[in-house]
Amino acid sequence: MLHIYEPERDYATPAPLPEYSAGYAALEVVELTIDGRPVAVPQGTSVLRAAALAGINIPKLCATDALEAFGSCRLCLVEIAGRKGYPASCTTPVETGMAVTTQTGKLARLRRNVMELYISDHPLDCLTCAANGNCELQDMAGAVGLREVRYPEGGENHLQAERDHSNPYFSFDPAKCIVCSRCVRACEEVQGTFALTIAGRGFASRVAAGAEQPFIASDCVSCGACVQHCPTATLMENSIVEQGQPEHSVVTTCAYCGVGCGFRAEMKGEQVVNMLPWKNGGANRGHACVKGRFAFGYATHPDRVTTPMIRAAIDQPWQVVSWEEAVAFAAGRLREVQQQYGRNSIGGITSSRCTNEETYLVQKMVRAAFGNNNVDTCARVCHSPTGYGLKMTLGESAGTQNFDSVDEADVVMVIGANPTDGHPVFASRLKRRLRSGARLIVVDPRRIDLVQSPHIRADYHLPLRPGTNVAFINAMAHVIVSEGLEDRAFIEQRCDQAAFREWLQFIREPSHAPEQVAAVTGVDAEALRAAARLYAGGGNGAIYYGLGVTEHSQGSTMVMGIANLAMLTGNIGREGVGVNPLRGQNNVQGSCDMGSFPHELPGYQPIGDDGVRSQFEGAWQVELDPEPGFRIPNMFDEALAGNFRALYCQGEDIAQSDPNTRHVEAALRKLDCLIVQDIFLNETAKFAHVFLPGASFLEKDGTFTNAERRISRVRRVMTPLAGKADWEATMALSNALGYPMSYQHPAEIMDEIASLTPSFRGVSYTRLEQQGSIQWPCNETACEGTPVMHVDEFIRGKGLFVVTEYVPTEEKVTRRFPLLLTTGRILSQYNVGAQTRRTANSTWHAEDILEIHPHDAGDRGIGEGDRVSIGSRVGETTLRASLSERVQPGVVYTTFHHPVSGANVITTENSDWATDCPEYKVTAVEVRRTTAPSAWQQAHSEFHQEQQRLLKGGPGEVSRDAAEKA
Ligand code: SF4
Ligand code: SF4
Ligand code: SF4
Ligand code: FES
User: Fold this and answer.
1) For a substitution probing ligand 2, which of 136, 179, 191 has the most ligand atoms within 8 Å of its CB?
2) Which segment of 284-288, 383-387, 684-688, 768-772 scores lowest on mean pLDDT?
3) Ligand 1 touching residue 299 (CB < 6 A)
4) Best CA proximity match to 475, nearest among 519, 434, 532
5) Quick check: CB of 88 below 6 Å from ligand 4?
6) pLDDT value at residue 964
7) 542 pairs with which residues across the strands?
């Protein structure tokens, strides 16, 4: 049973192998005595850790169990029978028969002397120090019985050293530093950024960020690992300085990305003081990034709209109303529309920011209360090809591994993903494995950080042209087959032979040879051949991929090509290998699992299957439509055609995130009723008639499912600001529509999900409390979940090779549009930026920038920082340009975190042939210098101001107005 509410213990040095690894249980056990007490621990354990495990506390300062032992503070000295001197117990491994003594008069004196030296150069301001009560230096002074300092005041010291307040989230006060190096080691070992060093020698040694720069100017990425592991108040969260030490903590899950990091929300009453990465978090193992760790202030930002609002038309002022009135108004409008235009004229969009339980309820309401299957989710625009491609080839719409698996990988191929920005905590894990010897292949049009960063250099960076993924993956397979590097035994035992033969014939065609496709992909044939040999023959080969794979007209084909490659080389079904989609939003895996697609009920069960449908009909007591409903792009098209008239959109900003913004906006303007549920009045809400205030992840109970299929608890730490959690709002709407829902707690919703979804059969809140998290499938055959899938056989039985013909995208460069625009994310902002833009994360990225190669910029007379117009065949916007050799000539790149950038004004509606996932990654554009905003940006600005006026001055004001009225 995990003790999720109790403080975490520090066992001083790491276990000899990670406790979750297969090798840990196989370690030989060593028996020794500590203070006469028999102790048995795995071989390789330090004496200090062995003592801690036995409940014997040896004083320590430079050691902590997240970092390798360093042996610098000399506080953990012990006596060992038969050995001379006083060895440091943190760097001394246990030996059979060892007799250790931790407390003697001599040891006590030595430790006191060490502490006395530390304290003589430390400000004696404990009572007013932010760390008071939570300071290891203070604790150790007490533990060793230090009562006085014999050194005279005024000696040489560091007490006047200048503080560094440059980082918006934490401060650095060198006067309090004991130079234990924990911060330096955390930055290296845990985060992998190497931003800190110990500069100087002896008494002059000090911690330095970068080349003795302020933190903000250094390479620091503000992950907070150094702050977390600093034993003093030297590195300290500003939130703790301002609010004081927290009083209690609750374990919950990050609401940003698909890594799904576990956190302790450290609280004072209902106020979050600090978010501390949870040591037992299965996805993050005690680490975090700048978003989850620090960017939580959005949850209580004054922009939160906390009262329901309605209006008759989008040029009318918003009217603040009660929940009952808003819900009755919304239900009335939905039913009116259906009466006039038919059952199929309305639909809903579920949110990948919301919990599994909430997503499940929205799709249930659409199917049961709306009476159709017009439900979709944002995975439509990101990883729907993953669902399709992996289901076709392997039999399940999800990644095959857990994150721990990367520790066993020998060769890692990263395709179309930028983990250090998009999935930073996984990236730290990956970088650690790379530093310890794994090889790396990066396939990306852009030179992402992983290609070369401290102590890491990719063996191959294959900078392919955007839109040529399938030609590339076919060439990889061609090399493996033509050089006989395939795993024949695996293919014979595990894969469908007829399909394999057909595929083999296809892939052997000379047209797939690297030399043939080089002209298309732009990838050097020899480098591709070498990368293929490395992946096939370098041991455990693991593929990690992102939206650079899926967001293409052949996204699904590429996913199947990746699965083909993994099966071809036997790289599936065990630790260290696999096909691993790095999923975007915190619960995008969950929203797909929960039946958010128009053709699938929860657990990817087809709506058209009579047996499946009848089970749901029995449980839900309603007849279900067997026909799949509209996907999001169909909803827009049908809205413009006048057939689709009302939409319930929960926690999804389609007006900013979906391609061809002008098309989306035109569709939204045509709706008779748009109901938006969100925590902010987002871009979509500007077109809405009903606004239902949403709840942040801190205000509700539920679960999120991350990229590893890991279901983790989200726990309510504060009362919903608007009075209702999102699942309660959906219930109210469903009840008003006449379809009753009466859950008392999300646990009941999960019980219903488990009863109807074979892969969730064993999931319950009780089991989640016991295990901490569960990776589905979790059922009769896998009671505790499934870290690695397809172990003995594929979910579909035999793995299916699928022929992956390369079909070039229709989006081609022309004389008019000679450059290819591709898009991505940066570390500090998140997606549409609704959360991160309302935090100090904007310090690092206040606007979206266009990266352009110096050659292309030179040809156009564009200089660094110039404003440029980017025009495609569907639209035009303007951004500031940055000259960068990270992009290849002919390719430009930007992010889409700021609404005013209008990045999606230029992206087209080209989409994946199987799933309609938009081709965000390939847009033919021309770039030229300009001084004026684009016509769309001007219109957007006017519309924004008009909507603010209709809010009587802004959302905060509406909330305040309402609060005053209340
Ligand atoms: S915050 Fe993270 S990246 Fe920055 S110095 Fe500390 S450990 Fe390194
Ligand atoms: S800043 Fe903290 S962790 Fe780093 S050396 Fe100083 S006391 Fe140790
Ligand atoms: S890596 Fe993702 S889940 Fe983890 S803290 Fe950062 S944003 Fe949150
Ligand atoms: S804890 Fe062992 S030397 Fe510091």
Assistant:
1) 179
2) 383-387
3) no
4) 532
5) yes
6) 42
7) 412, 578
